[in-house]
Specification:
By secondary structure, the chain is α+β, with helices and mostly antiparallel strands. It has helices at about 1-10, 30-35, 40, 55-60, 65-75, 230, 235-255, 300-305, 325-330, 335-345, 360-365, 380-390, 400-415, 415-420, 485-490, 500-505, 515-525, 530-540; strands spanning about 45, 90-95, 125-130, 145, 160-165, 185-190, 200-205, 205-210, 215-220, 265, 265-270, 395, 425, 450, 460, 470-475.
């Protein structure tokens, strides 16, 4: 609070004339407003290594700090098959805790191997049919690489190879003034014998078996999770206005700027809904690189605590798993030999249900059951979501610095702010939940806040080498990312961490077909000092 007071004290001098003795210029009016990146209810002035971990003022105002801390504990601790109170891991899983993927609560880091137990390795595999671009039907959307005995992982992570290759752009990785930069990108190789299940996909309504060469492979890293509640508080109608505005520009310029799958001719295309636990109510997609999730209450965190660890809760009493895996496991001699011991060890009260003597049928029925015992209580899940929705955004830093003010001006002049839209206004924030778990008063709220995420919440295409599956990628919010090195121990950027710093991230936007091509061309023509100013500004917000 003392730091905040100092910032506001400086900002209060905006009307003072320049001092004749010092020649100092007055602080612009916008500095105070934009310093509060998460608005008055969502900003922390912590700039230490724990800057991404603070509760918002809204959490404190609502008296939810205890629940927030309990949710934080759930996020940080490892789950195990029998480790009260963090029990229920598996039988298949990707990681043992959320923190493994979100170092310092931030973006995952770049690594040279795929290992579940490497702290900060936030990589998830995206495997799809090269012919149709669709996920493989025999593997889950996020393929699991670990299993509890006697089960076997659908994919053997020991055989996953990540190769980092050098890339030279059309400018030879060189600015006109001679300054150079490096670009690298990942190429992932998974051999046929790494797959435990047949590689099956759907083509023209038929299930076909693919070879490893027919499988597309991409990496996606986890994103920073702070401020997610504030993004959730942006009204659906405001998102529609943003899409319509860009669609108008699209029609005026002839450029393909809007993904027609989501929005076309002034109306939503597909929207997010949950017809399994919910009633099918629809909301615009707003979370994940691929825009695969809508409201936060049924979004990435709500989903990940279930499918990353395969920990059940009252609204999801089933495994994150495919029938193809269950069929394969039910026919595996090793699994059949150890299955009843597994049930006796971890589910002794259910041995009558899954120990009928028909071991193959018992294995399949257990893996596909919709009535598994609840492993995470409703209270635990609620506290986790209080924490998730309650994470504050670090305040923007040093906005009165002349270099940063220059960078801010150039950032807007060269068009970066077109996609990295600076600010949004939240609505009443009567948050919705397509999963119908929350009633509307259990979680922190952020009504009528001006926030500065620097994202238009839409998808665009950069056409990078080994690009994201489907080419379209949501504009990542830039707020707080300048603290990544302090909080997370790295400053890797973009969806697969290929950019090791801001310059590399910018230059990966520069492909000839990229939606950001004009901005990159303008950035190249800047002087070294001007480029440094843009980088300083991006790191300040």
């Amino acid at each position: 609070m003392l730091i905040a007071a100092a910032v506001l004290s400086a900002a209060a001098c905006t009307d003072d004339p320049a001092s004749p003795e010092t020649g100092q210029q007055p602080v612009p009016d916008w500095v105070e407003t934009e310093t509060y990146a998460g608005g008055r209810l969502g900003t922390t002035f912590n700039v230490s290594a724990s800057a991404f971990e603070d509760p918002t003022p809204a959490v404190e105002n609502a008296g939810m700090v205890r629940q927030f801390k309990h949710g934080e504990m759930i996020f940080e601790h490892n789950y195990g098959p029998t480790s009260e109170p963090f029990d229920g891991l598996g039988p298949l899983y990707l990681r043992t805790s959320c923190l493994m993927c979100h170092p310092g609560y931030g973006h995952g880091k770049r690594t040279e191997s795929y290992r579940y137990d490497e702290m900060g390795n936030g990589y998830l595999l995206v495997l799809y049919d090269k012919q149709t671009d669709a996920y493989l039907t025999s593997l889950t959307g996020m393929p699991q690489t670990r299993a509890i005995e006697p089960f076997k992982a659908p994919l053997d992570e020991e055989k996953i190879q990540i190769n980092w290759l050098r890339y030279q752009d059309e400018w030879g990785n060189r600015f006109p003034d001679g300054e150079t930069y490096d670009l690298i990108y990942p190429e992932v190789v998974i051999p046929e014998d790494a797959y435990y299940v047949p590689i099956q996909a759907s083509r023209n309504g038929q299930t076909v078996t693919l070879t490893a060469d027919e499988v597309g492979i991409r990496l996606e890293s986890t994103i920073g999770i702070y401020g997610s509640g504030l993004l959730d508080a942006i009204p659906d109608d405001s998102l529609k206005v943003q899409y319509a505005r860009l669609e108008k520009i699209e029609k005026e310029t002839g450029r393909d700027l809007v993904n027609d799958a989501f929005f076309k001719d002034g109306e939503w295309g597909k929207q997010y809904s949950n017809t399994v636990q919910g009633n099918g109510e629809k909301h615009p997609y707003r979370f994940t690189y691929a825009l695969s999730r809508g409201a936060l209450q049924d979004g990435p965190g709500a989903n990940a605590i279930w499918n990353i660890t395969n920990v059940t809760r009252s609204d999801r009493r089933y495994h994150y798993m495919t029938a193809a895996y269950a069929t394969t496991a039910s026919q595996d001699p090793d699994v059949r030999d150890g299955f009843y011991h597994f049930i006796d060890t971890y589910f002794p009260e259910y041995r009558d249900r899954w120990n009928t003597g028909d071991v193959g049928k018992d294995i399949f029925n257990f893996l596909m059951s919709q009535e598994l015992p609840v492993e995470m209580s409703d209270e635990e899940y609620t506290d986790l979501m209080i924490w998730h929705r309650g994470l504050a955004v670090p305040a923007a830093r040093n906005l009165s610095d002349p270099q940063i003010q220059t960078g801010r001006e150039i950032f807007r002049e060269i068009g970066c702010a077109t996609c990295h839209r600076p600010s949004w206004k939240t609505g009443p924030d009567n948050y919705n939940d397509p999963n119908r778990f929350f009633k509307g008063n259990e979680l922190p709220r952020y009504p009528e806040q001006t926030i500065w995420p620097y994202s238009d919440m839409m998808q665009h295409r950069l056409y990078m080498k080994n690009d994201i599956r489907g080419d379209w990628c949501r504009t990542t919010p830039l707020w707080g990312r300048g603290l990544s090195l302090v909080c997370s121990g790295h400053q890797d950027r973009l969806h697969d961490c290929r950019a090791r710093n801001v310059i590399e991230a910018i230059m990966w936007h520069g492909a000839a077909e990229s939606d950001a091509r004009a901005s990159v061309e303008a950035f190249r023509e800047l002087s070294s000092e001007e480029r440094d100013a843009v980088v300083a500004f991006i790191n300040a917000i």
